[in-house]
Structure formats: C-alpha cells, structure tokens
Write a structure and sequence with these properties.
heterodimer, A: alpha/beta, Rossmann fold, 2 domains, seven-stranded parallel sheet, five-stranded parallel sheet, elongated, B: alpha/beta, two-stranded antiparallel sheet, binds flavin-adenine dinucleotide
Chain lengths: 323, 249
C-alpha cells in the first residue's frame, strides 16, 4: 500500500494534501498497489473527500488527545499506520506539519526520507525521488536503501487530479496522551491568505520598492490577480517592517508558483535560488542589465512605480479576478 | 544545563554549483565552505542561554577534517568544547542523526540545538530524526525560545503565522532566522579558542536510509522577451501575454 498523510482545514482536504494524494494514486497505479489516505485529529470529518482523489481506503485516527498537533504523537500515528497496513511508501505534503512529522515518522520506521520532492517515480518497485538541492541550483535524484520509503511533496508542483476511489473507511487506534510536546496556541496573521510556499501567483518587491509603505501597490496588484506578496532579503532586512516569512530565496522561502513577478529585484544568486522553479517569471526593473532579466519570460524595463499600477489597472480592465 | 549544538559545513550561498565527474556529487573546486546559516542561530541561542542561565555548550559536526573550521569558529564564539564525528560524508540526514544519537545517548544533554535545515542538502530532517532516535521532544523552525524548569516554550513559524509549542526537556530545537542576531567572534574569543582542542571521534557505523544517485543542473530557461512601449502599453501587453500565451489567468 501507498499511504498518504492528509491534512484537513475547515473540514476540507488542504490543497497540498490533495496534490500528494493524487501523486500517490499515480504511483499506486504504476505498481498495482492500493492507495490509503491517513487522517489524524480530534475530528476527521471531511476525510471522505479523499475518495475523490483516488483513495481506496480512508484511515482515520480520531481522538481528543490529537486535537492539538504534537510531533511525537502524530509521528507515532503515521508509523503505526504504515506498520498496520504493511505500507512501503509514506507520503505527506511538504507543509509546516508535513515537514515536521514525516522525518520523525521515517526515523521511527528506520526509513530513508526525501523532503520537498518535485518528482516521484517507481523504479523496480521502489520509490525514486527528484528534489531540489542548493535551493534549486541543482536537482538530486534520491533512491532508497530502506524497505519503507518516506517523502514529502512540494506544494504547487503535483497536479491535484480527481479520480474516484472506493474510499472504504477504517479507524485506527490512537496514542494515549502524555506527549513530549504539543501545540498550545496558533498565532495567525490576520490576512488569511495562502502562504507563499503554496501560492499560485506571487508578486515580490525588492530594494527598488524604496520603502515598506510602497508595498501597498504590490498588494493591490496581487489582489487583482489572485496572488500574494513576497520580498527579497534586501527588502526584509531594510527595516521596513516586513516579516522574514515574506523572504524568498536561499535563506528564505523556496517557492514554485505558476507566476512570479519580481519588482525592483536585481536577481542575486540567493534570490534566484528561491524562485527559479516558478513556471513563468516576470521582471520589472529600471536597469535593462539587471541579471533578473536573464531568467524572465517577460521583461519590462521601466519604473515600477509607473508600471505596477498600470498592471493592476489592465488586469482589472481585462476582468482577471482572484482565483 | 548541558547543550549540544549540531553544526554543518556547507557551500557558501554565492557558490555556483557544478556537478562532479561521478555525476552525483558536488564538484568542490572553487567552493568556499561556511557554517550553515541556520546553525549560526542555533549556536548563538546556546551561547545566550549560557550567558543568562549558565550552561555547558558542546559544538558538534559530522564530517571530514575541513569541518574543524566550523568547530574552531564555534569555540571562538563561546562553545566550551567541540567534537568532530568523522564520517565518510556519504550519509544522508538519517545516517547523521544516527551518528549524533549514538554520541549523545549517555551524555545527558538537556537541549540539542540544530539549524532548521542544512543549506544545500535542504532536507530539514536531521533534527526531527535525532529527536525520534533519542526519544525526546522536538520543535522545528523556531523564532523564539523560552526555557522553564525541565520544560520549553517555543514559537514556530507555520504557514500564515506562527504557533506556540510547549514540551519537556530534553528536546531537539531547530532554529530559524529571527531567533536571534548572531554575534561575530571577538579577538579574545579567537585567541582563547586556539588553546582549546577539538575532540575527534570515529562516527558510529550506521546504515543510510537514502542516497543521491544523480545530481543535475536545472534545465536552461528559454530566452524571454522584453515588452515595449510606455508603462500602460507594457502593462497591457504583459497581462494579455500572461492570459493568451502563458495561460496563467
Ligand atoms: C548535492 C547533495 C545532495 C544531497 N541530497 C540528499 C538527498 O536527496 N537525500 C539525502 O538523504 N541526503 C542528501 N544529501 C546528503 C545530506 O546533505 C547530508 O548527508 C546530511 O547531513 C543531511 O544534510 P542536510 O543539510 O540536508 O540536513 P538537514 O536535515 O537539512 O539539517 C538540519 C540540521 O541538522 C544538523 N546537521 C545536518 N548535517 C549535519 C552534519 N553533518 N554535522 C552536524 N550537524 C548536521 C544541522 O544543525 C542542520 O542545520 C545530499 C548531499 C549533497 C551534497
Ligand atoms: C548568506 C546570504 C544569504 C542570502 N539569502 C537571500 C535570500 O534568501 N533572498 C534574497 O532575496 N537575497 C538573499 N541574499 C541577498 C542577496 O545577495 C542580495 O543582496 C539581495 O537579493 C538583493 O535584493 P534586491 O534585488 O531587492 O536589491 P538590489 O540588488 O539592490 O536590487 C534592487 C533593484 O531594484 C531596481 N530598481 C530600483 N528602483 C527601481 C524602480 N523605481 N523601478 C524599477 N526597478 C528599480 C534596481 O535597478 C535594482 O536592480 C543573501 C545573501 C547572503 C550573503
């Protein structure tokens, strides 16, 4: 069996989990294996949706003790499920929770682990992963020595394809409690927008923005085209009040949106490392020699303070709504 | 309190990546080696705890002789002792975790600080794997850490915000940018470090879980095009192209 750990939000499967599930279905089909979707929490209501993405079996570990995320408890649930079902492949999305729990579960299973993978295949019945290393400056093909193979899938890379599965429900036993660590409180940002790592469209600003307040024009463009706003390290470190969570690059977030618009960003190697996996790159820069243009599918040489508001206007005029 | 800090030597972020003749490893020519930036936050946090609460800080690296540079720097910054676990450098994060677990097993560390990911390998895996192997708590991608009596409270970065994780010591904590601002080594520190020795041990034999079978550079991106005209015309042309050619919208 190929087992995919899935996360729910507001009773729905999170998009990165749906992507992992779809990829799991593809791998299961390639090897004639069954696909299991695994959920854990105080309530797993909404887990039935996994059948839509091809799950043959839907496994739920439901207990009050799992109401708040605990690394050790969830890792135990994942590892126990792998053992109970004799699964050989365990996948999760490379989200904050996925990246926290999957390596711990792998160690518990004595298994190799490939993180944040952008490609998966089955070779001679074993998982093979392709993953960006050096923040995307190179790609490593990873093969496994262990019987069980664990990987996390990078959000926004694998398509979430619908394919009906039997979705037979099964419940799992749950750990008793007394966990080593537990999440006590979530301090959410007000925006409620998707995280950069999962965003489909990103509008980023660099030192050329001159001031944090000017990021407002990027917000307006992002709102018009259904995107979120990122920044270069120069902008984050400039003392403009931008949080580090906005930083794209080798020491920030590594992103792979469909569209990345770089405004007033020169294209330093550490910045490029974080966004070169984007499908389409647009650069807006007043310097025609800026290195970012070497990477851009579409380049606009010009003053961003003139171009960006025009883009917002054009997008609105053409009826491009948020998606 | 006893603190272990795991430090990895990695290629500088400026490095142009070239694939070696074996087709699966990094060509080390022209590479400048540094301490992985996130590990610097881990070390700084350990030194601050030492300064405010009192602690004995051990810096550890798994690697070859060159990793001694990382450890010398750690001693200059304020680590009390340094340990080099000599491995063949071929292991994955799981192999490294097993080596460190074998070393740390009976040393009574209250806190193990790591980077949230090693720059380059980018697995973000060693910390959680070590925590599991040692049977202790973990908290990853931490921007704030408070220690109590045998407990910790940490703020961890998540999508769209952060969360507070509480747990029991001993624990493995992995550092994120924002946790602190690492200091530079003082001349006094550098001189004092010269008198200290780095303990060199053979790493325990372990089995890796995964290995790299090929390393490749990303495909070249096709040449792009510049959009002409005034700002309004450029904007119009871009949105049109994104819609019709790229089909982004
Ligand atoms: C080009 C390349 C590609 C690679 N690809 C893979 C791969 O796909 N899969 C794989 O399993 N391995 C891979 N490796 C090997 C891997 O980089 C290292 O073997 C292993 O140390 C994990 O490194 P990381 O930086 O990814 O670890 P992470 O899990 O990201 O490291 C987290 C933290 O653990 C600590 N740490 C990690 N390594 C050490 C160390 N040697 N000494 C002390 N502390 C340490 C540090 O505090 C670090 O911040 C690759 C290596 C190279 C050079
Ligand atoms: C260890 C290390 C890690 C790093 N990690 C990262 C990282 O993760 N992410 C990252 O981004 N950087 C990182 N950096 C920093 C990186 O080297 C660059 O310094 C940084 O990316 C530069 O940011 P920038 O492009 O915004 O600024 P600059 O390089 O100063 O570029 C500003 C650009 O704006 C243009 N401009 C100015 N005004 C206008 C205008 N009105 N209209 C249009 N264009 C205009 C200019 O022509 C210029 O090209 C790292 C550096 C180091 C040493």
């Amino acid at each position: 069996m190929i087992l995919v750990f899935c996360e729910l939000k507001d009773g729905q499967i999170r998009k990165p989990s749906a992507e992992a599930l779809s990829e799991g279905r593809r791998l299961a089909d390639a090897t004639g294996k069954k696909l299991g979707a695994l959920f854990a929490g105080a309530s797993c209501a909404g887990s039935a949706e996994a059948a839509k993405y091809g799950a043959d079996v839907i496994l739920t570990a439901e207990a009050g003790s799992l109401a708040s995320y605990s690394s050790d408890a969830f890792a135990a649930v994942l590892a126990d499920a792998v053992k109970a079902k004799g699964a050989t492949v365990l996948l999760a999305a490379a989200t904050a929770v996925g990246k926290d729990v999957a390596p711990r579960a792998a160690a518990r299973l004595g298994a190799g682990y490939a993180s944040d993978v952008t490609g998966l295949s089955m070779v001679d019945g074993k998982l093979q992963a392709v993953r960006p290393v050096y923040a995307g400056k190179a790609f490593a093909t990873t093969s496994f020595a262990s019987a069980v193979q664990v990987a996390t899938t990078r959000p926004n890379v694998f398509p979430a394809a619908e394919k009906a599965g039997a979705g037979a429900a099964e419940t799992l036993s749950t750990p008793a409690g007394d966990f080593k660590s537990v999440v006590k409180e979530i301090l959410a940002k007000a925006s409620g927008k998707v995280d950069l790592s999962e965003a489909n469209v990103i509008v980023s600003g660099g030192r050329g923005m001159k001031d944090g307040a000017n990021f407002k024009i990027l917000e307006e463009l992002a709102d018009a085209i259904g995107g979120v706003v990122g920044a270069s390290r120069a902008a984050v470190d400039a003392g403009w009040g931008l949080p580090h969570s906005m930083q794209v690059g080798q020491t920030g977030k590594v992103v792979s949106p469909t569209l990345y618009i770089a405004c007033g960003i020169s294209g330093a190697i550490q910045h490029i490392a974080g966004m070169s996996g984007s499908k389409f790159i647009v650069a807006i820069n007043k310097d025609p020699e800026a290195p970012i243009f070497k990477l851009a599918d579409y380049g606009i040489v010009g003053d961003l303070f003139e171009v960006v508001p025009e883009l917002t206007k054009a997008a609105k005029a053409m009826g491009i709504g948020s998606n | 309190m006893k603190i272990l800090v795991a430090l990895k030597q990695v290629p500088d972020t400026e490095s142009k990546i070239k694939v070696a003749a074996d087709g699966k490893s990094l060509d080390p020519a022209d590479v400048k080696w540094i301490t992985s930036p996130y590990d610097e936050y881990a070390l700084e946090e350990a030194i601050r705890i030492k300064e405010t609460k009192g602690a004995e800080v051990t810096a550890l690296s798994v690697g070859g002789d060159s990793a001694k540079d990382v450890l010398k720097n750690a001693l200059a910054l304020g680590a009390d002792t340094a340990v080099l676990l000599k491995g063949d450098g071929q292991g994955d994060a799981f192999a490294v975790a097993q080596m460190i677990a074998a070393y740390a097993k009976d040393k009574g560390f209250d806190l193990i600080l790591c980077g949230n990911k090693g720059l380059g390998g980018d697995n973000a895996a060693m910390g959680p794997m070590l925590a599991e192997l040692m049977g202790v708590a973990q908290a990853n991608v931490i921007v704030k850490l408070e220690l109590g009596e045998g407990t910790f409270k940490a703020e961890r970065e998540i999508e769209g915000g952060s969360e507070i994780v509480e747990g029991a010591l001993p624990a493995v904590i992995t550092a994120q940018k924002g946790l602190n601002e690492p200091r530079y080594a003082s001349l006094k520190g550098i001189m004092a470090a010269k008198k200290k020795t780095i303990e060199e041990l053979e790493a325990a034999p372990v089995t890796a879980g995964a290995q790299v079978s090929a390393l490749a550079l990303p495909p070249e991106r096709p040449a792009g095009r510049k959009l002409e005209g005034d700002a309004a015309a450029q904007a119009q042309a871009l949105i049109q192209a994104l819609k019709d050619e790229a089909k982004v919208f």
